[in-house]
Specification:
By secondary structure, the protein is an alpha+beta fold. It is built from three helices and six strands; from the N terminus they run βααββββαβ. It has a six-stranded mixed beta sheet. β4 and β5 form a beta hairpin. The longest helix has 17 residues. It is globular, with a radius of gyration of 13 Å. It starts with a strand and ends with a strand. The model has no long low-confidence stretch (mean pLDDT 93).
Length: 118
């Protein structure tokens, strides 16, 4: 079990994942939040079909056609870094690079990039 699941907060104070989830239809949003709760409960043990390892320390939650990318932070927490609606079989390298960049920012700045607690 993880102690916390955090939303990444960018330098403008916005939370891209929270905004993405807020724009989803109610059923899709509920499914995504159920997957996030499973992440909190199962942490590092969460596996397919709910989650998968993307690479470079980045994982994805897989609620339907949506993807919520996350990384583990400070041993017992996870940070939701990015979210997309998947339209092709292959993930965009641009999306992965954005997640890696946000992971580095969070690691370098500590909690200042992960203020929004879920």
């Amino acid at each position: 079990m993880l102690s916390n699941v955090w939303f990444f907060v960018d330098e403008r104070g916005r939370s891209p994942v929270r905004e993405f989830l807020g724009a989803l239809p109610v059923k899709e949003r509920a499914k995504a939040y159920a997957y996030i709760e499973e992440l909190r409960r199962n942490g590092y043990n969460l596996r397919r079909p709910l989650a998968d390892y993307v690479g470079r320390g980045i994982y994805e939650l897989r609620p339907g056609a949506n993807r919520v990318f996350y990384f583990f932070f400070m041993r017992d927490s996870a940070v939701l870094a990015h979210a997309i609606r998947k339209r092709t079989d292959k993930l965009s390298q641009r999306d992965i690079e954005l997640c890696v960049k946000r992971k580095k920012l969070a690691e370098e700045s500590g909690n200042s990039q992960v203020k929004d607690l879920l």
